Known about the structure:
This protein has 3 helices and 11 strands. With 145 residues, it is α+β, with helices and mostly antiparallel strands. The strands form 2 sheets. Strands 1, 2, 3, 4, 7, 8, 9, 10 and 11 form a 9-stranded mixed β-sheet that branches. A two-stranded antiparallel sheet has the order 5-6. The longest helix is centred in the middle third of the chain and has 13 residues, at 87-99. The chain is globular and about 40 Å long.
Amino acid sequence: MIDHITLHVHNTSTSLAFYDAALRPLGYIEKVRHGETVGIGEDDGTPRADFYIAPALGESHQNASEGPHRVEDSSPITHLAFRAKSQDEVRAFYDAALAAGGTDNGGPGPRDYHPGYYSAFVLDPDGNNVEAVVDWSHASDDARK
């Protein structure tokens, strides 16, 4: 139930060229851009991407609730997003993660990535960014009920 993974790289252009060539035979194409972050996914006619390439450690990163910030060069930040079935599950993930020692990195709420995107972010004990997300923009009308 992984929704997407973000790989932080030192040169987004070089890495994008590499992954574009390497993953194209598997049916992956560039699907979305959020600033310097590029989403890649199956060529299925939807905007859904499950693999993202973003600027590496020490470069500017976007905190979901507070805007751009800098991360420590020594931090092992990787981004993992797990798919939730509902906004209640997103909130339950967030509460459980904080209770287990996680650090807030963006409380539950809608995000401006696109309509229907609702998520929460926590940092794990190693500083990795972990997200739970429900994204109704990719669901059929029947699935939303």
